[in-house]
Amino acid sequence: MRRRERAPLRIALLGFGAVGRRFAELLPGPYGRVLRDLGVAPVLTGIATAHHGSSIDPAGLDPAECAAAVWRGQSLDRFHRGRALASSLQFIRAVPADVLIEVTPLDPRRGQPATRHVRAALERGLHVVTANKGPVAFARRDLRALARRRGRHFRHEGAVMDGTPVFNMLERCLPGVQVRAFRGTLNSTTTLILSGMEAGQTARAALRRAQALGIAEADPTFDLDGWDAAVKVCALANALWDAALVPTRVKRTGIGRVSGLDVRRAQRAGARLRLVARAERRGRRILASVALERVPLGDPLAGDGQDAALVFTTDLAGEIGVLQRGGTVEQTAYALLADVAFVVSQQIPPRRGRLEVVAGS
């Protein structure tokens, strides 16, 4: 019996930090098996970085070789085939790809350059998968509309709570349910720091641990000042309520002034200090905030270490919560895979069993 030929799935990575590298490293192994089971053969055709060069090879790059080069501080330009690339936008226009994975660092005040990247890729006719909160918080409505016009997908499961199915759960598992409000501990770095202070660590030492684990933002003040959580509130609100909420409209405080004494007082009161993100819809208004709260022990939001939790208040299903234990780059990389798999499953016609591909330039 002749084996069915798998259609190629050409994947380009824009951003090659901890999450991008982990996705690439797993692509030849378990991630590749998932996609091959769906009928496609994944090929990594391009990688673009801000500090380690860029590379395009239509025949496919070696993910392990590229990751090793970056770890050694070498440029990816050595693997490039074709004309030199001067910018990320030029990379998006040139790379032969079907799916662009966007995982560049976050600018929580503007959502750039990620939003510009996503728009350029969709306009070119690529599917886009991102773990970046910026495009969802600043331009989700416009980008979804653009994706529909171009007949492409814009997926962003990894933007909130790493690989925990949040957007997919709301979109596909709760038909007819309206979310009235939500609350969550959405920033793992601040939860890790506060947990460390409960155990007697200094805030600085706990932050160093978060950075070593790869969960802190490139600029950790975005975590400490509540910006990261504020962007995630906007991403959730915009997805839930088709809103256009931006982070500057979120009432926000951080954990910069928290002392060990504050933490111990909360513990003596049977609670934990946590940075809690909230949003509530009241008619056409959305009230959103990020603030330090005392969370009673036993509450889903009173998690430890890198835990994250999110509780939705709904009209038909009451309160529904999701919990992530020990979030790391592994979960975020998996969210990218889940979204790529969704794109593949939607693009394979049932009878032909082949992926619709986009011609590369």
Characteristic key phrases:
Dihydrodipicolinate Reductase, domain 2; 361 residues; globular; 6-stranded mixed beta sheet; 13 helices; Rossmann fold; 21% strand; 12 strands; disordered C terminus; alpha/beta
Report on this structure.
By secondary structure, this protein is of the alpha/beta class. Helix content is 38%, strand content 21%. It is built from 13 helices and 12 strands. Helix 5 links the parallel strand 4 and strand 5. It starts with 6 loop residues before the first strand and ends in a 14-residue tail after the last helix.
Gist of the model:
The chain is α/β, with parallel strands linked by helices and 361 residues long. It contains 13 helices and twelve strands.
Number of strands: 12
Number of domains: 2
CATH topology call of the largest domain: Rossmann fold
Q: Could you tell me how far the N terminus lies from the C terminus, measured between alpha carbons in angstroms? A: 36 Å
CATH architecture of the largest domain: 3-Layer(aba) Sandwich
Side-by-side strand order of the widest sheet: 3-2-1-4-5-6
- CATH class assignment of the largest domain: Alpha Beta
